[in-house]
Design a protein that fits this description.
Blueprint (H helix, E strand, L loop, with lengths): L8 H11 L3 H25 L2 H18 L2 H16 L2 H6 L1 H22 L1
Length: 117
C-alpha cells in the first residue's frame, strides 16, 4: 500500500490564505499538541488502556487532517482502529512510524512558515 503524501498542499494553501499571519501560530500549536498526543498514546499503550489510546488517536487524526498532515492522519486512523479492536501490541509497534511521520510533517510545516515569513 502506498503511503499518503506527508502534507496536503490544497488544504495548506487554503489554511494559509484563511489564517494569514496566524498560520505560524497554528503550526506551533500543532507541534506542541502532537507531541503531547504521542506521549499520551505511548502511555495508554503501556498501561493497556485501549479506550484512552483510541481517543488520543482520534483527536490526533482530526487535528492532523485539519492541518493537511495526511500521513499522520492515516497512521492515526490505523491506530484508532487497532485500539478499537484492543490490539495494543500492534498499536505500540506503529508508534515509532507515527512519530517519524509527525516529525516530518512538523519539519515541512515549519519550512512553509519560514518561506511565508
Amino acid at each position: 500500500m502506498q503511503q499518503p503524501p506527508v502534507l496536503d498542499e490544497t488544504v495548506l494553501a487554503e489554511l494559509r490564505e484563511v489564517m494569514g499571519s496566524d498560520f505560524e501560530t497554528l503550526v506551533e500549536s500543532y507541534g506542541r499538541d502532537g507531541g503531547l498526543r504521542l506521549d499520551a498514546l505511548r502511555q495508554a499503550a503501556a498501561q493497556g488502556d485501549a479506550d484512552q489510546a483510541r481517543q488520543q488517536a482520534h483527536s490526533f487524526k482530526g487535528s492532523s487532517s485539519n492541518l493537511g498532515a495526511r500521513r499522520v492522519a492515516a497512521l492515526c486512523l490505523e491506530l484508532e482502529q487497532l485500539a478499537r479492536t484492543g490490539d495494543l501490541s500492534a498499536l505500540a509497534e506503529r508508534l515509532d512510524p507515527l512519530e517519524d511521520a509527525f516529525n516530518e510533517s512538523c519539519r515541512s510545516l515549519r519550512a512553509l512558515t519560514a518561506v511565508a515569513g
